[in-house]
Write a structure and sequence with these properties.
It is elongated and about 80 Å long. By secondary structure, it is α/β, with parallel strands linked by helices. The strands form two sheets. The protein has a six-stranded mixed sheet with strand order 1-12-2-3-4-5, with helices on one face. A six-stranded mixed sheet has the order 6-7-8-9-11-10. Helix 6 links the parallel strand 2 and strand 3. Helix 1 crosses helix 4.
Length: 394
C-alpha cells in the first residue's frame, strides 16, 4: 500500500481508539489527556521509519525518530487489538444482560474496561520490548534422519534467521549474536535470509561482526525477501566479501570428517553432506534470473550422497524441496508471528509457523527468527538461535 493511504488509515484507527476509550475514561479519572497525547504522538510518529525522517540532516536524530515511531507502532498494535476485544466484550455483556434481565453498573464497567486497555497495552509492549532486545536464547533440536550415515550422526547446524539489521538493530546487537553462536561450536552455520533492512552503504558497519562467525565447515547464507527490497546483489557481494558463502540455487558438498587415507568410496560418502540454498520464494518478482528453484540447486550433486539439506527463507518452498528429494529444509520468514495476534495470520500464507514439522519424507524446521522486524517487540514468540543436530531415525 502506498504511504499516504496507509497514513490515513492508521490515523483513522487512532481516532477510533480515542473515540471508544476517552469518553469512558473521562468518567473515571482526570488523566485522560495523557492517553489523548499518547495517541496523537503515536499517529504522528508511526510513519517516520518509512519516510526516512531527517532533522537538519543529522542521522542520530533521525534514528531517534525512527525508534520512537517503531515503539509507537508496537504499542498501537496492542491498543487496537485490545480496543476491539473490549468492544466485543461490551457487546457480549450487553446481550447477556438484555437476555438475562440482569442489571449492572454500565458506566462503571465501561470506565474500568477503558482504563484496562492502555494499561495492558503498555505492559505487553514493555514485556515485548525486553524479549526483542535480549540476545536470542539457544533452542536445541534433534532432527531424526532416516538412513543417516554414521559419519553424520551428531552433525550440528547453528541457524540464524530474520535478524533484520536496520534502524534499531545495530552492531552491538549483532556482536552479541556472533558471540553466542561461536560459543556453540557448531559444525556449520546457516543464515536463512532477511538479514538486513537497508542498503549496504547504510548498514555495512553494523553487519561487519558477521565476519567473525566461526564454524568448522563455514557459514552459508540464502537471500530473503528483505534482501531484495534493499538491493540483493550489493548485499550478496558484501556478504561474500565478509567471507560468508551465499548460495543462489546452488549447492556445496561438505566432507564432515577427515577422510585422508580413506580406502573406499563408502568411507568418503559416509560423512558427506549436500548443503543447498535457494533464493527467496518471491525473488523472481525482483530479478527473473534469481527465480527460486530447489531442483536446480541440486544440479550435478553427487547422486550417492543421499543426505541433503536445503536452506530456503520461506517455508512455502517446502513442497518443491520435498519433491526434489531433500531430507531437511531450514527456513524462517514467519518470526513465529512475532507478537499476538499476528501469529494467527501466518498460516494463511505459510504452511508452517514455527518449529519442526514433517512434509512427506522431509523435515522442515521454521525458526522464529533471531531478531525482529519493525517494532522492537516480541510477545508469545521468543527469538531464537537454533542448534540443530542430525540423529538417526529410530
Amino acid at each position: 500500500m502506498p504511504l499516504p493511504p496507509l497514513i490515513l488509515l492508521t490515523t483513522l484507527l487512532h481516532a477510533y481508539i480515542g473515540l471508544r476509550l476517552l469518553p469512558a475514561l473521562a468518567l473515571l479519572t482526570g488523566a485522560w489527556p495523557v492517553l489523548l497525547a499518547a495517541l496523537v504522538l503515536s499517529a504522528a510518529t508511526m510513519p517516520l521509519p518509512f519516510v526516512g525522517a531527517r532533522s537538519a540532516g543529522r542521522a542520530p536524530l533521525a534514528d531517534g525518530w525512527k525508534w520512537l515511531g517503531l515503539l509507537c507502532m508496537g504499542w498501537f498494535s496492542s491498543m487496537f487489538v485490545l480496543t476491539m476485544a473490549r468492544d466485543a466484550g461490551l457487546l457480549l455483556t450487553w446481550l447477556a444482560t438484555a437476555l438475562g434481565g440482569w442489571a449492572i453498573d454500565w458506566p462503571r464497567g465501561q470506565a474500568w474496561s477503558a482504563a484496562a486497555v492502555p494499561l495492558l497495552a503498555t505492559l505487553i509492549s514493555l514485556i515485548g520490548f525486553f524479549n526483542a532486545r535480549r540476545t536470542a536464547g539457544v533452542v536445541r533440536v534433534d532432527v531424526p534422519i532416516r538412513n543417516l550415515p554414521s559419519g553424520l550422526n551428531g552433525f550440528t547446524i547453528a541457524q540464524l534467521s530474520d535478524i533484520h539489521v536496520g534502524p534499531t538493530i545495530r552492531r552491538g546487537y549483532i556482536q552479541r549474536i556472533v558471540d553466542a553462536v561461536n560459543a556453540l561450536g557448531a559444525d556449520m552455520i546457516a543464515i536463512t535470509g532477511d538479514l538486513v533492512d537497508g542498503t549496504v552503504a547504510e548498514l555495512r558497519e553494523h553487519v561487519a561482526p558477521l565476519a567473525g562467525l566461526r564454524a568448522r565447515l563455514g557459514t552459508f547464507v540464502v537471500t530473503g525477501n528483505h534482501e531484495y527490497y534493499a538491493g540483493a546483489q550489493a548485499w550478496i557481494d558484501e556478504l561474500r566479501r565478509l567471507g560468508l558463502r551465499v548460495l543462489l540455487n546452488e549447492h556445496v558438498v561438505l566432507q564432515t570428517r577427515n577422510v585422508r587415507g580413506a580406502q573406499t568410496d563408502e568411507e568418503v560418502l559416509d560423512s558427506a553432506l549436500v548443503v543447498a540454498g535457494v533464493t527467496d520464494y518471491t525473488a523472481a518478482h525482483f530479478d527473473a534470473a534469481h527465480a527460486s528453484d530447489p531442483q536446480r540447486a541440486l544440479h550435478d550433486a553427487p547422486p550417492l550422497v543421499r543426505t541433503r539439506l536445503l536452506l530456503a527463507h520461506q517455508p512455502r518452498s517446502a513442497p518443491a524441496a520435498a519433491e526434489a528429494g531433500y531430507q531437511l529444509q531450514l527456513s524462517g520468514h514467519t518470526h513465529g508471528g512475532q507478537f499476538f495476534p499476528w501469529n494467527l495470520f501466518v498460516p494463511l500464507q505459510q504452511p508452517f509457523t514455527a518449529g519442526l514439522h514433517r512434509l512427506r519424507e522431509m523435515w522442515v524446521y521454521t525458526s522464529r527468527g533471531t531478531g525482529y522486524w519493525g517494532p522492537p517487540k516480541r510477545f508469545g514468540a521468543p527469538s531464537e538461535i537454533t542448534l540443530l543436530r542430525l540423529v538417526p531415525a529410530a
